[in-house]
Amino acid sequence: MTVHPAHSLAAGGAAGSVQRCAHCGHEIGEHESQQACARCGGLFELHHPAPAITGAGLRALLDARSASRRGVFASGVWRFRELVLPSAGDDALTYPEGNTPLLSRPTVTRWAGATSLHLKHEGHNPTGSFKDRGMTVGVTHARRIGATAVSCASTGNTGASLAAYAALAGLPAIVLTPRGQVALGKLTQLLAYGARTLLVKGDFDACLALAREASERLGVHLLNSVNPFRIEGQKTIILELLQQLSWEPPDWIVVPAGNLGNTAAFGKALREARDWGLIRRLPRLAAVQAAGAAPFAKSFAEGFAKRYTVQAQTVATAINIGNPASYDRAVIAIRETDGIVTAVSDGDILEAKAVIDASGVGCEPASAASVAGARKLIRDGVMAPGDSIVAVLTGHILKDPDAITRYHQGPEPSPAHANPPIEIEPRLDEIERALTPKRP
Ligand code: F0G
Q1: How many Å apart are CA 117 and CA 250, to the nearest integer?
Q2: What is the side-by-side order of every strand in the sheet holding 150-153?
Q3: Which residue, judged by its Cα, is nearest atom 7 of ligand 1?
Q4: Contact, 223 vs 150, CB < 8 A?
Q5: Which residues are bridge partners to 29 per DSSP?
Q6: Is residue 272 predicted with pLDDT exceeding 50?
Q7: If I label 329, which of 27, 86, 304, 358 is the partner at 20 to 30 A Cα–Cα?
Q8: pTM, to two decimals
């Protein structure tokens, strides 16, 4: 594929990134576009030349940029550009994104049974999920190689992000979503940002298979996380949180796991952060799936001897995935970080969400799997209560308003943390009555 001339010089001397198949090692150039290795069908990973400076010098450079308010360094992705896409220079197509807060809330920490629990809230990205970090890189690349249309399969967040960044790039976006399984906040974003929205009569796994086929046959540029440029952007969740912790890694990083793009990205980010001297030791990764959509947890329980596919069924629609595409890359991430994979019930996810929401932080159901997972792993004795833990909240509370309504206003018996509204007549005594605590 040809390279857009206006962008081919943007490397600023930093040329030399390659895409390498994570399975067989076959290499293609940075500016080529193949969704999978033509030799073995494996997924590509980007490999960049080592930054000119590493260790304390690199930390100082990145820290100096974190005060930027304008230009590409105002982005919490492009501030790390030497580690993300060195050749992009100032060409990045940025909202800007990232710069998400690292929070700590005593009620959430206590509920999890932890002593040090931080929440990295990716719902604070422009379209309300971590997907914007990968999409800024993916769409920047798409534009540089002259893509004429972009597409993805999505449980909602990838599609919302794709639609917003495609609008920024002036490219048409096509999103394949499983009909009836996309949360309201996400579906409305797709329509509003102007994506051609296809409601597929099938699940996410069917949507992804179809999107991959359409990309091959119709030449539409695919921006699911099988695309290695997405992974490069998502690495910055890790880089940014390490920076927020003054480059002192926590003991654990916990992440909700669906299609496994993030798990793969986190492993790569940590490996590179160590190799380039940003950190001295690796935190352990904990990937948390919903019990009804846990093929990766099942494989982990058997030492990754076998890859499973399941018929997924969970209230956490974002991670309702039975055949995760980044399986191979995620296995490497878990092995390299001495990580762990677990699964939590829908009930535990909703309880964790209610506690996170009531702390004033709020997140969508899939995000709460990380905190529910931390509680489970502490209870199981895998994590020590004194361990320092960062749980990633992947999406915003308003992504899934129906889940909130069902929890707080659903039929009796109400769940433990339900906070139903109270209907009253327009009189003061009605308010008094409403303020009187109910007898148990
Ligand atoms: N959390 C949220 C809020 C998500 O939207 C997703 C994935 C995940 C967690 C899982 O991340 O796939 O990298 O393991 N959402 C995709 C989508 C599938 O289409 O929006 P993963």
Answers
A1: 10
A2: 196-200, 173-178, 150-153, 221-222
A3: 318
A4: yes
A5: 18
A6: yes
A7: 86
A8: 0.95
